[in-house]
Amino acid sequence: MNFQTKVLEAPPFGAPPHPRRGRLLGIARVAVKLGPLEELQRAGLSVERGIEGDRRGLKRSRQVSVLFREGWEDACRALAVELPWIVRRANLYVEGIERPRATGGRIVIGDVVLEVTQETEPCLLMERAQAGLLDALTPDWRGGVCCRVLSGGTIALGDAVAFLP
Hints:
mainly beta, M1 Pyruvate Kinase, Domain 3, 7-stranded mixed beta barrel, 3-stranded antiparallel β-sheet, 3 helices, about 15% helix
């Protein structure tokens, strides 16, 4: 597949986000099953392996998981708690873009193009991290999405993010 991409400029901090453009706030990977997440400043993504060094990248339809700040904060508000985003065990944490509620859309970060393949189903690890979190993440795709990499490249914190339904 051939995708045309263009460099997107992130809105300045404090500015209202463009309805379909946001910012990359977090990058994480996990080297071993159930291991701790390692937060990164930048990462390479490939069609073959997802995020470099992440054990989940070989699962073609679930190479990269994306968590949306607005959905995460909705879940935390429902529990009246503040939790760091990595509790969700997602690879990418973004803000300011429409949260997908269907498969097939594209998330673009620089040259990287991700295809939304499914909703990320919350698991029992969420309940172990915080009582009630599994249920709080369930409505309205709050738990984020799983994606496959259509076009690889390097991403870094602060990069602009766009959602193309």
